[in-house]
Amino acid sequence: MRTPERSVELTQVTEWEDGRVRSLQDSLAAEEPLEIRVGGRPLTVTMRTPGNDLELAAGFLLTEGIIESPAQIAGLRIKPPDNLLKTNVVEVELQDSDFDTADLQRNFFAASSCGVCGKASIDAIRIRGIRLPESGFRFDPEMLCRLPEALRSEQAVFSRTGGLHAAALFDGNGQLMALREDIGRHNAVDKIVGWALLEKKLPLSEHVMLVSGRGGFEIIQKVLAAGIPVLASVSAPSSLAVKLARELGLTLIGFLRGRRFVIYSGESRCVSAKTGSDSGS
What we know:
Elements: E1 8-17, E2 20-29, E3 32-38, E4 41-48, H1 53-63, E5 73-78, E6 89-94, E7 108-110, H2 122-128, H3 141-153, H4 156-161, E8 165-171, E9 176-182, H5 185-198, E10 207-211, H6 217-225, E11 230-233, H7 239-248, E12 251-257, E13 260-265
Parallel strand pairs: 3-6, 4-7, 10-11, 11-12
Antiparallel strand pairs: 1-2, 3-4, 5-6, 8-9, 8-10, 12-13
Helix pairs in contact: 1-5, 5-6, 6-7
């Protein structure tokens, strides 16, 4: 997979190994602010890894409930740089949208570690009217076990820096459809959703998303907005994420490692899932 431009920065470091010291060049995952403007007015700033910025902006608009379809995006562009400097601004023009650019209460800062922090509750998701994911979709647990390796093998920036999250979208057969990396887990998800939005592939009702790290509340709401019925992660979900997944019918998988995973919600989609308990006798 090609490394996106500006996603990696080089630096000089000193390495200590078994008593030996040497100077060498190292690769760092880039982190820069991205400002999203709607109608010429600042909407938000998010810390992200440069690359796929238009997808990130489009995905953010959808997963935050500002738009519902690509037809509402009348214009989407990266602001041309001034004085040959780097540009970190995406400008969006909307049409047929109820979003009021004068409502500055929508402005917030999204840190790369936590996503959109301070969401009121699951009630806020209900109010947005997000549809329940497709209930008829089924997947083979054997297929699920193959996904982490497929994700790792395509992480071009992570392989160089070791400091990046990833989100990957697979079809029902485990075929990789898209993968995006970012310093922020939520940004990687928005990039995938933005790609699907701009390619007019939504809703992703017969797909599985796999994310590195944990499956938090902000990831769940973004996955639901894209219509994805199954979210898997290599680590644990949060308590609020589990509550939201159970309430809205998302299949939530955690600790997907090797040939083991934990189903926190929606086990009916796992075609050969069996329930049971240890008797302890």
